[in-house]
């Protein structure tokens, strides 16, 4: 995990392995900031959708029980959202390095679209 101090806040960049481990232990809330279309086509099972255009740092839950980790397709949008969350007053926030593309490259499970039926289906990676 890499961390960057911004004022009195800490922005963490987690690897896919760190996110997957914390996710499996239910230690984090994983928030997908991609578009609804991207999410519908494929997403990490259980991740919440909060598209970047609708982001409002004031509406985020506290992190007393679970850390918030953002992710997007490549890590660019989630980094921007994490920085916006810090600007909104959060003092510790994280995002996943490499985004969903890195998650798939690491062969982690996700929900994809069965192209034959159009139905969602679990992909084991």
TrEMBL record:
Residues 24-112 form the Rhodanese domain. SUPFAM superfamilies: Rhodanese/Cell cycle control phosphatase. It comes from the Bacteria. GO terms for molecular function: thiosulfate-cyanide sulfurtransferase activity. PROSITE patterns: RHODANESE_3. This is Rhodanese-like domain-containing protein. It comes from Roseovarius bejariae.
